[in-house]
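Quarterly update from the structural biology core.
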Amino acid sequence: MHTSSPACPRPHCACCSAPWLPPSASCTPFSHCDRVVHTDAAPSDHNIEDYGTLRPLARDRIVHHFGTDRPSPGRFEELLAQAHEVIWALPPAARQHSDTLLDECRMRWTGVYVVLYTDEQPTHVGIFGYSGD
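Predicted structure, tokenized:
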């Protein structure tokens, strides 16, 4: 069943029915929300369908990085800042073995999202990924 907003241009939009979006949110032809996948399985660089996708971070990986399954927007920002420090401080060969939040997305042209909570309510979506250039 498709529950997107009337303004949504896609017949199978995954993000329009997302419970954390405000009722006024709607997709645009440029939001590419048809590339959101509902599996937390790692993408494969051998599968063309996996390029250009956004997928949820697995629950066990959320708990690993955040210490809870309901991370806050502030903690998300902290972990991103820590990951960027590692990127700038370590040479590329040493980063292959790092375990930061950004290391959860290693395939080009893909992204990962985490639902973020304020006062036990989903209020934000944290998105990070790997560009193709």
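The chain has two domains: 1-36, 44-49+56-130.
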